[in-house]
Structures are given as structure tokens and as C-alpha cells.
Design a protein that fits this description.
heterodimer; A: alpha+beta; Immunoglobulin-like; five-stranded antiparallel β-sheet; four-stranded antiparallel β-sheet; 15 helices; elongated; B: mainly alpha; Cytochrome Bc1 Complex, Chain D, domain 2; two-stranded antiparallel ribbon; 12 helices; about 45% helix
Chain lengths: ~450, ~300
């Protein structure tokens, strides 16, 4: 819990130097400028497929972990669980343990109840506010925003988001809690599909525990299971299920029942592990040897293979990421223009994406079109040999290509843009239309 | 209907209490609306009271209650328009005080003029010239490099202001005579000169063509001895590949026989001067705009137009 919370709150403060023309925050989603930064990765809206890949990677990693270790994500990393745990910790701190809390709930309103309840809700709201506050740092430059917050000079958008997240955190972690997992979370519903008999789950050893029943200290265990039906496992369960009925959809694998049962077993001098983390196979066969712990099964290799493939693709894509990109969009209205000398002219919108962090000059030419003349429309004396695009910007230009009438219409042509300093090129396929379809 | 005022009756099948109402053996179950829904409903009722006070609400004879905030759709529109005008104002001021030459060399103003011009073009000009300015039969294509009255920025500006054969007193005006109808040429002569004109752009018609003499006598005064047109009369170049009304024999015959008198309305007085100048720049930028001497000669460095994030 502490680790996940620390990551959440500290991550926006990490710096990552990208030069003077880009923000130096390691993780930043810059919505107004439409850029996303994640350490060495920089994503433009045109490259949203990287985001897809990262999400697919995360999903499959989740499946992988689930098939090996069960729902550890739910129990240890899911924000819903982490914040619920944090809220429960506050409750424990202020109001005492479960029994004390139940007593407090039953009390009529008095000063003790008022301040304990009041303090709990105040701390909850404070945590919720910090959560919302930290969230906006992922979308704004953190140090700048800190200054703004400290000088009470915050934009409406930030305030609305902080308020909305404060409210939703308070509601979800304070009141909705495990109902989110049972009724709202889609992942909980299909997670069991990733399980097999070799997945680590929270399991009740029914062979050892049944038939359950009250047991008098000192009498024989003959004809008796080791479960004394003390219901400690049911009481501690945040999801309100009885694990002795077997693995259930609600179980988030938090392990509280394991701890509770072990405590009881210690008290009645029986071996621990009546409820334990284990695989279904081992529980059914009563075997504890490690050979039965079947980690290296085909499923493991499939998942690893897929994960490596996606990671490889993302890394390959990033390593070979073009520092600039060309897009040419043929004008539709009009498709073509006949000039006085009989030549045909087509118009194109040219976009040059300059992903480098310095102002760059490009030149544009066209291939596969004989005797083509390239002219740029724009203010002043704009030539196709010198198209300047600011660092980290998209330069939009308009090009007129004129050439003698072509036999083939539309004719496939290729636009080529060259970085004037580095000499590197990017190409874009387009077409040249010589005859109107009308 | 049976009367069950005092005792609760439980429906056997659903286990739900009935209201005691019964129709032909069918009993109405008592399933009240959920409590949370009811509370939301009450809150909205209370909310509406505040709403009536602040906003216009109840229809009364002679209008509706005004509300304390004085909100109306008209003031809302006015405020939003004022906001837009204010944003435009920053550019418009600079635009207003800049010459064509300055605008053509300033990427920001140039982009501003093009955006404004494009909008005005679609509202006012697209009816005849088409949304892309490609024109049609009798309506010049504004994208090409053939101009009847000139393609420099000042020529386009004048055409836009005063129109062609319009009702404005300073309009551009000229006349293509109806050579056949008015008996200036015989039908045979019209046919001959039509054939001559058709051959001009392909270079087939030389001075040995029988139509050459007729052309030099009747047409050259406006279209020029070389048939390359005369912009002071709005006379088209007959040697190029562009035909305003079409290049078929029948069309050219009709043009010579009956004459043509295309009309373009004047816009001065209907659109304000800033709008007209934006429109001028837009039309000039469609592709055929000719350089003015002043723009050609000015010196400036490389510029990044229309950069966006």
C-alpha cells in the first residue's frame, strides 16, 4: 500500500530533461499541446498506436500475473483496494478496531461519537483532496502548478478536476468500497477465466477442515475436521464472503482470511495453513512438495511470448521513430485545375511533423511526375526549398503541383520531404489528377 | 373492487404486498419507487423553485416572468458574439491598418485574411463560382491563371468592389457584340470566324485561314491582333486552353452570333472594406493570383506560415 501510494504521489515530480522546447516532467500528458511524455517515450496524437500497444501490454501482463498468482492485482495494486485500505486504516486509527467501531455505531450521538466520526470524515476528505490534487499533476507541469496552488491562482479546469476526484475518491473508498469490485469492475467478472488448476489462489483445505464443528479443548480430533467454525475468516473478509465455500467471484485475494485463520490455528495448537495461498491441484491432492507447484506450464510461455512480442514492437518503433514525418492531402475542391497553357495543376495540403526539439528547415519535391513544378502558397516568398517548421510543431503548408496532362488519372505520385541539415528524407504517397470525373 | 383498508394482503406468488385493488382477479402489487429516487425527485422540485426566481420561467400575458438574473437567449448570444469580435479585433485592427503588401508578407495576417475570406466566399460567392471557386459555364474558375480583368491583387479588389456590368456606376463594363443577330456579320462569316477561333489554341489557325481577315477587322480591337485578349476590356485570351462558355463549335458560334454579357454584382456597400480585402486575398490565394510588382520586389526572410501545435 505504501509503495503504490508513494509511486502515485511522487511520479509527477520526477524530472526528465528533453531540452528547452519540451517539458522536463518525466510523466506528463499535455492535453493543450496534445503530447504525452513517459520518460524516454514521447507520443504525438498521430502515434496513438503506441498508447494502444502499452495498454495491450499492460492488459496481457495482468492476465499473465493473474494466471500465475491469482488476483494479486486486485488485492495489492488496484487503486480501489489501496485507497479503501487507506480509508480503513484511518478508521482503525481514529475509531479503533471492528468491535469498537460497531459499538460506536450503536451509540447514540454524543461528543465522543461526534468527534471520532467527524475526524474520520475530515481525514478521508483530506486524503481524497490530495488524491485529486496529485492527479492533476500528471496533466500539468508539477512545479508550476505547485506555485499556482500556493498562490491560490489555479485555473477553473484544475479546480473542477480536483473537486470531481475528491468527491469520487471519498465516495468510492469511503462508502462504495468492495461493491465497486462486485458490481462495477468488469475485470473481476472475467478474471476467473485466466485461472487454471495451477494458479495460486486463496483456498480452504476442505479435506483437512471438514466436517467442521465446534471443538472442545482437550478432546480427540477423531471424526472432526480442523475447522472449528469460529467464522474468523468470514468476519475479516472485506468482500463479505465465506471462503470455505470455495473460490468465488468476489474474492480479491487480499489474504486477510489466511492471516485470521492462522491466528486461530496457533491458538488451538494446530498447524497453520487450513486456509492458504496455494494451487487447486495441491489443495486437492494434499501435497505440499514444490514439484507440484507447476509454474512452467504452456500458458506461462504463451504469455511471455506475447509480452516480449509487444514490448519488442514498441521498442523497435521507438528506436526507429522518425524525427519528422510528412503528410500530403490532395485538395478535393477543386480536384484539378486546367491552366491557360494546358497544363494541369493539383493542390495539396502539406503537413510536416517536426518531432525534433529544434527549428528545422525542410525542402519538398515530388517524384514520379515528369516536368512537375512545385509552388508554395503562403505569405511572402515561400519556396519549396525552404520550409521552416518550429521545434516540436506541425508545419502546415499548401503546395500547388503543375504538370502536363497525364495519360493516367489519377496517377500515383510521391512527395518527398528532406531535412535540409541532416539530409534525411520522408515520403508520402499521393496522386495527381489530370481529368475531372464529371 | 374489494375493500381491504385495514389488513395487509401479501400476494402468494411474488410475496409482495398488494394495494388491495383488484380487477377481475388481478391484484395490483405495491412496489413503491425506490427511496433514493424519491429523494432526488424532491430535491429537483426544491431546485425548480430557485430556478423560477432566478431565470425566466412562467408564461404570463405579455411575456414571461423575467427572473432576477435577467438572463435571455438574446443577451447570451450578444455576449458570445462580443467575445468573438473581441478575439477577432486583435487581428482585425492590425489588418485594417495594413496595406495589401504588408498583409501578403505577414504570415499571421495572411492566414487571418484567408480564413475570413474563405467564410465570406462560401456565403456570397459560392452560389455562382462554386464552393471551391472552380466556377462553371459562364462563371469563371478562380483557381486558374486566366483572368478576364486581371489577376493582380488590385485588379481582383476592384472587380470585387464594383462588379462587372453591375448596377454600380464605377462598374467594369465592356460588350461582346452580337455579330450575327445584329447583322454585323453574315451567318457564313460567323461560321468561318468560329472555325478560326477554335483553331487558335491548337495553333491550326494561321494568317492563311479565311477567318483571319474577319478576325482582324471585327475582333482584334478588343481581343488583340494576336487574339491574346485585352484585360482593359475584359476580353478573354482566345489562344489558351481555357474556355469560359465551352470550346465546342456550337458554343463558340453562339458566342459570336449572339454575344455574351456575364454579370458580376458589386459588393462595395454590401460587404465592408475589411471583409472585401480579406475576400480579395482569399481569391488571389486560390492559385491563379498574379504577383504585383510591389510584392515581387520586397525583401523578406524565410517564414513559417500557419504553424500549429
Amino acid at each position: 500500500m505504501a509503495v503504490t501510494l508513494a509511486i502515485y504521489y511522487m511520479a509527477p515530480l520526477i524530472r526528465w530533461d528533453r531540452g528547452p522546447t519540451a517539458p522536463d516532467q518525466a510523466i506528463l500528458i499535455d492535453l493543450p499541446a496534445r503530447r504525452a511524455y513517459w520518460f524516454f517515450i514521447e507520443i504525438w496524437p498521430q502515434e496513438v498506436y503506441y498508447l494502444t500497444a502499452i495498454l495491450v501490454f499492460s492488459a496481457i501482463a495482468l492476465f499473465f500475473v493473474t494466471s500465475l498468482l491469482g488476483r494479486v492485482w486486485c488485492g495489492y495494486f488496484c487503486p480501489q483496494t489501496v485507497w479503501t485500505d487507506l480509508y480503513i486504516a484511518v478508521e482503525n486509527l481514529v475509531q479503533g478496531d471492528r468491535v469498537a467501531r460497531q459499538r460506536l455505531d450503536k451509540m447514540s450521538l454524543c461528543i465522543e461519537k461526534a468527534w471520532k466520526k467527524g475526524l474520520t470524515h475530515f481525514l478521508w476528505l483530506l486524503i481524497a483532496f490530495c488524491t485529486g490534487g496529485a492527479f492533476v499533476f500528471y496533466f500539468n507541469d508539477a512545479p508550476t502548478l505547485w506555485q499556482q496552488i500556493l498562490s491560490f491562482n489555479v485555473s477553473n479546469t484544475v479546480m473542477i478536476f480536483v473537486a470531481a476526484l475528491t468527491f469520487s475518491t471519498y465516495l468510492m473508498a469511503g462508502f462504495a468500497r468492495e461493491q465497486v469490485c462486485t458490481y462495477m469492475c468488469p475485470y473481476a467478472r472475467f478474471q476467473s477465466a485466466m485461472f487454471d488448476k495451477d494458479t495460486l489462489i486463496i483456498g480452504y483445505d476442505s479435506l483437512r477442515g471438514e466436517p467442521r464443528g465446534k471443538h472442545k479443548a482437550g478432546t480427540s480430533w477423531e471424526g472432526h475436521g480442523h475447522c472449528i467454525d469460529c467464522t474468523a475468516c468470514v468476519q475479516v473478509c472485506p468482500m463479505g464472503i465465506d471462503i470455505r465455500q470455495g473460490l468465488q467471484m468476489e474474492c480479491i485475494a487480499c489474504g486477510l482470511c489466511v492471516d485470521a485463520c492462522n491466528d486461530i490455528m496457533d491458538k488451538i495448537n494446530l498447524p497453520r495453513g487450513l486456509i492458504r495461498y496455494d494451487t487447486e491441484t495441491r489443495i486437492e491432492t494434499c501435497q505440499q512438495d514444490s514439484a507440484r507447484l507447476h509454474i512452467l506450464r504452456p500458458r506461462t510461455f504463451y504469455y511471455i511470448a506475447v509480452l516480449c512480442l509487444i514490448a519488442g514492437l514498441v521498442i523497435y518503433g521507438q528506436m526507429n521513430r522518425k524525427p519528422f514525418e510528412l503528410h500530403a492531402l490532395h485538395n478535393r475542391n477543386p480536384l484539378m485545375v486546367r491552366l491557360a497553357d494546358g497544363h494541369i495543376r493539383n493542390g495539396y495540403e502539406i503537413k510536416i511533423l517536426n518531432k525534433t526539439h529544434e527549428d528545422t528547415s525542410f525542402s519538398l519535391r515530388v517524384e514520379n511526375l515528369q516536368n512537375a513544378r512545385v509552388e508554395m502558397r503562403g505569405a511572402g516568398r515561400l519556396t519549396p526549398e525552404n520550409l521552416n517548421v518550429q521545434a516540436n510543431h506541425v508545419g502546415t503548408f499548401h503546395a500547388f503541383i503543375s504538370a502536363p496532362e497525364q495519360k493516367e488519372s489519377p496517377l500515383d505520385i510521391i512527395f518527398i520531404v528532406k531535412n535540409n541539415r541532416a539530409g534525411t528524407e520522408d515520403r508520402y504517397e499521393s496522386m495527381f489528377i489530370s481529368r475531372d470525373a464529371r | 373492487m374489494t375493500d381491504h383498508h385495514n389488513k395487509k394482503e401479501i400476494d402468494d406468488i411474488s410475496g409482495v404486498e398488494t394495494t388491495g385493488h383488484e380487477w377481475d382477479g388481478l391484484k395490483e402489487l405495491n412496489n413503491p419507487a425506490p427511496r433514493w429516487w424519491l429523494w432526488v425527485f424532491y430535491v429537483t422540485v426544491i431546485w425548480s423553485v430557485g430556478y423560477w426566481v432566478i431565470y425566466p420561467a412562467w408564461p404570463t400575458p405579455g411575456g414571461a416572468t423575467k427572473g432576477t438574473s435577467g438572463w435571455t437567449q438574446f443577451t447570451k448570444l450578444k455576449n458570445e458574439q462580443a467575445e468573438i469580435f473581441e478575439r477577432q479585433g486583435a487581428y482585425l485592427n492590425r489588418f485594417h491598418n495594413s496595406s495589401f503588401e504588408e498583409i501578403m508578407n505577414d504570415p499571421e495576417l495572411y492566414a487571418f485574411a484567408n480564413a475570413g475570406g474563405a467564410a465570406v466566399f462560401k456565403d456570397n460567392c459560392a452560389t455562382c463560382h462554386g464552393t471551391g471557386g472552380a466556377g462553371g459555364k459562364g462563371y469563371p474558375n478562380l483557381n486558374d491563371d486566366e483572368w478576364l480583368w486581371g489577376g493582380r491583387i488590385e485588379n481582383i479588389y476592384q472587380t470585387l468592389q464594383y462588379g462587372i456590368r453591375s448596377s454600380h456606376e464605377e462598374t467594369r463594363v465592356s460588350q461582346m457584340p452580337s455579330f450575327g443577330r445584329d447583322g454585323l456579320l453574315t451567318r457564313t462569316q460567323v461560321t468561318t470566324v468560329t472555325d478560326y477561333v477554335r483553331g487558335l489554341s491548337s495553333g491550326k489557325s494561321g494568317s492563311d485561314h479565311p477567318g483571319h481577315a474577319i478576325f482582324q477587322e471585327k475582333c482584334a480591337s478588343c481581343h488583340g491582333p494576336d487574339a491574346k485578349g485585352g484585360r482593359e476590356f475584359g476580353a478573354p485570351n482566345l489562344t489558351d486552353a481555357i474556355w469560359l462558355y465551352g470550346e465546342s463549335k456550337d458554343t463558340i458560334f453562339k458566342t459570336v452570333y449572339d454575344g455574351r454579357a456575364g454579370m458580376m454584382p458589386h459588393w462595395k456597400g454590401r460587404l465592408n472594406d475589411d471583409t472585401l480585402r480579406q475576400l480579395t486575398i482569399y481569391v488571389h490565394s486560390l492559385g491563379g493570383g498574379e504577383k504585383s510588382e510591389s510584392v515581387n520586389d520586397s525583401e523578406f526572410g524565410p517564414i513559417t506560415p500557419g504553424s500549429e501545435q
